[in-house]
Amino acid sequence: MISLVTIASFEKQHQAHIAKAVLKENGIDARLKGELINQTFSFISNPLGGFQLIVDHADVQEAHLILLEAELIEKSNLTNDETILSDAQLREHKPNFFTRIFNSLPIVKNLRYEYQILLFVLFSSILFFAVLLWIGNKGEDFSERKNADPRYIYYTEQLPIITRLMDEDPTKALDYLNNLEEDSWMKKNIVLHKISAYEYLDSFQRAIDLRYELIEIQGVTLDDDLHALAIYHHLLGNVKESEKIALELTHRDSSHYSLLADLKLENGNDSHALVYYLKALEYLKDKNENIVHPDYLMFLRLRIDSLNSVLNK
User: Fold this and answer.
1) pLDDT average, residue stretch 82-86
2) What is the average pLDDT across 72-79?
3) Domain tally, the chain
4) Residue 219: is it exposed, middle or buried by C-beta count within 10 angstroms (0-12/13-18/19+)?
5) Residue 73 sits in which domain range?
6) CA-CA distance, 49 to 11, in Å (whole number)?
């Protein structure tokens, strides 16, 4: 049995063949190790150990000198370990990444090196496609979930259309809203959009009806609902109803005295307006500036001074 030694390793196939030819011209029988596997998997030739030039142990020193003189290898790249290796042991002479993995597996380590690499590529391919399949299934699951989620559809598809139509023509926005399928979550949002559309169209009676519908959906009457209702009734000329709602708001929160004062003033009741402006100022002047802007307090004082001037004439 011939004892072989790896004397050099080349990244490029043509470099290995030139070195082999030079040795052959000088009477040294040289072989290339791993040529087939490196051609097949050229993209990982470095981890595979490259194209390995091997000679008989007896020819190692002479082969080294010939390759050095031909400047085909550098002295620093020479193999210093001259352990005599059989063909079956050759892959253990200079262990690489794959060799270390394969030698740790009881069954695989007894296979030929080429078969080990093919097995590794096969396993990697199966793993790669399994990951792609898993990602694909996850993507389909997400697509199904997002298509079934009314919130996703509303924010990504419907809301941009509603906003655009509201700017272009509120009537078209209403037509679009009326054709939407309403579920328990979307109904509130659709009603709010309809209210905004009717406000644009100055259809305040329809806005009032929808505001009460919204209150029913919410199950509670919010301050914003009462505030809007007071304004709608005022714009429709329902003086008593608007002031009644505004007064109800002041019972909830004294900060709404200014709304009631504005309505009294609009309805020509200056004396009552002055009373409620004073109450609003009294309530708001001690509040933090983050809650009440100083300019608004100045506005109230000017309004109060103006009413006092009118009433004292």
Assistant:
1) 39
2) 60
3) 2
4) exposed
5) 4-94
6) 8
